[in-house]
Design goal:
By secondary structure, the chain is mostly helical. It contains 5 helices and 2 strands. The protein has a two-stranded antiparallel sheet with strand order 1-2. Strand 1 and strand 2 form a beta hairpin. The longest helix has 25 residues, at 62-86. The chain is globular, with a radius of gyration of 16 Å.
Length: 169
């Protein structure tokens, strides 16, 4: 996720906490799905010939951005589903995925399907005492991390759209 201004940290954290507490898991997941759809659409909109091209002044090419987003999303989704079901966080690192747009999109889709299959079976009030730290937003429980996936996906969807525009795509 790009680094929001420090003044935004509390606002976003408040949103995560409020919505995660008020909405049911299926609604939260629907929001995550929307964010992932935005990410995938933005990734597909980048012309294939521009995927490895760095926009002026950018450290990442679009494929770098997509790879980061997907690998991070998969790692977070794995933690969310384990905590939701068992109360124990695996804490595995991000997977290393092949740098190929179609492979990354397929991995994101498979992870999302697995996340929903597991989280939809979990008690929505279970294990909320288990938290782990986000570098910007502090300690979050699994429902807050679930909703964070939406923010992360939409943030990188916007980044990919800006890259496509900067590259003339």
């Amino acid at each position: 996720m790009t680094d929001p201004r420090p003044a935004e940290f509390e606002r976003i954290r408040g949103y995560l906490q409020q919505q995660a507490a008020q909405k049911d898991v299926s609604d939260l997941f629907g929001r995550v799905r929307e964010g992932m759809d935005d990410l995938i659409a933005a990734a597909r909109a980048v012309p294939a010939g521009k995927l490895e091209t760095h926009p002026p002044g950018d450290d990442w090419a679009p494929l770098d951005c997509l790879q980061h987003a997907v690998q991070s999303n998969i790692q977070v989704a794995e933690d969310v589903l384990h905590v939701a079901l068992t109360g124990a966080r695996q804490g595995n690192g991000e997977p290393t995925l092949q740098r190929d747009r179609d492979t990354l999109i397929a991995a994101q889709e498979a992870s999302l399907e697995s996340l929903w299959a597991h989280v939809s079976e979990a008690d929505p009030a279970a294990n909320l005492h288990v938290t782990w730290e986000h570098p910007f937003f502090g300690e979050l429980n699994w429902r807050e991390w679930l909703l964070f996936l939406r923010i992360h996906a939409r943030d990188h969807a916007g980044q990919l759209a800006a890259m496509r525009e900067a590259l003339g795509g």
